[in-house]
Amino acid sequence: MKSFKFLYLFAFIFLASCSSDDDAPKLTIEANLVSNLHAPQEGGRGTPVSGAFTKFSFATGSITTDDINWDIAFRGTTIIVNGGESLGTIDEPARTGNASIYIASGSMATVKTVDESQLIQDSKTSYAIKPGSDNGWYNYAGDPTHVISPIPGKILVIKTTAGTYAKVEILSYYKDAPANPDAFTDPDSYYTFNYVYQPNVGVKTFE
C-alpha cells in the first residue's frame, strides 16, 4: 500500500508540473520609442575614429554600461552587435555574447517574423551592419545639406544575447528628431528609434 501511495504521489506531482509548464503565461511583446540616444564619436575626416560606444539592452529597454549584457551599440553612424568579433577600432567593446542581426526590407507592420538564415555577426573584417551611405541603415546627402537620413523600409532585426528577438526602425539621427534636420545647426549622433521586443525565448514572431 505504501508503494502504491508513493507512485500515486509521484504521478500527481509530475502531471501537475507538466500542466504548470504548459499553462505558464507568455510574456507580453513590448513596443517602445527611444528618443535622443546619444552616441557621439571622436575623430573622423582623415583621423582615427574613437570614443565609447553607447550600448543598449532590449531586456531592460535602456542604455547600459554593462560589458556583458548588451545587444547592440552605437557610435556615430556605426551600429555593432554583441556577437562575433571586434573589427579592432579604437574603444570598440569586446563581443561577449552571441547576438546577431540583419536588415529586413519592409515596415514595422510588415516585418512579422525572423528569418534566422539572414542573421550575421560582426567580424574582424566587417560589421554586420555595413557602414557608409546607402550600405546599411542611412543615406548621407553630401553637398550642400550634408544631412544623414535613415533609409525608409530598412528594419533592423536582432537576435539578442538572451536568445530573444527585436526589430528596430531608426527614425532620426538628430536631437529631438526634427522633421527637416539642418546638419549645421541640429546636433547629430542622437538616435530616435521605434522597437518591438519579443521577450519569449525561441519565439520568432512579433505578433
Task: Please tell me about this protein's structure.
With 207 residues, the chain is mainly β. The chain has one domain (27-198). It is built from one helix and 13 strands; from the N terminus they run αβββββββββββββ. Strands 1-13-12-11-8 form a five-stranded antiparallel beta sheet, with no helix packed on it. A four-stranded antiparallel beta sheet has the order 5-4-6-7, with no helix packed on it. The chain has a two-stranded antiparallel ribbon with strand order 2-3. The chain starts with a helix and ends in a 9-residue tail after the last strand. Residues 1-22 have low confidence and may be disordered.
User: How many β-strand stretches?
Assistant: 13
Work out the count of structural domains: 1
The percent range for strand residues is: 25-35%
Number of helices: 1
What would the average pLDDT be, to the nearest integer?
Answer: 90
What is the CA-CA span between the terminal residues? 51 Å
Helix content: 10-25%
- Low-confidence segments, ≥5 residues, pLDDT <50? 1-22
Please state the structural category.
mainly beta
Integer-rounded radius of gyration: 21 Å
The neighbouring-strand order within the major sheet is 1-13-12-11-8
Overall geometry: globular
Largest sheet: 5 strands, antiparallel
Task: Please write the string of helix (H) and strand (E) elements.
Answer: HEEEEEEEEEEEEE
